[in-house]
Design brief:
5 helices
């Protein structure tokens, strides 16, 4: 489980240090996938599957995972871009 947290954190760092906006967005999208795997192995997904048995289908889970990866990445990507712009502005101001 620690590996998924490390990979997700590494992708988040790479997205913040990317030089262009596309790289920040793509790595921000990718950083959501290991976090979903971490939720799976921690048992969070099992609670959801026990509450909603119709989700226990491979096609539904594939679609749900794709939507979750996109949703998490859509939040993380712009957040990283904004934080990167703020830190870049502060760095330029300090010169």
């Amino acid at each position: 489980m620690v590996v998924y947290a490390i990979v997700g954190g590494w992708l988040l760092i790479v997205s913040q240090t990317a030089s262009d906006v596309k790289g920040q967005y793509i790595f921000g999208q990718l950083s959501g996938a290991p976090m979903i795997m971490l939720m799976t192995f921690s048992g969070t997904i099992d609670i959801i599957l026990n509450s909603f048995p119709w989700l226990n289908n491979i096609y539904v889970m594939f679609a749900l995972s794709a939507v979750l990866v996109y949703a998490i990445g859509s939040v993380v990507g712009p957040l990283v871009q904004r934080l990167s712009a703020i830190s870049r502005k502060n760095w330029e101001r300090s010169l």
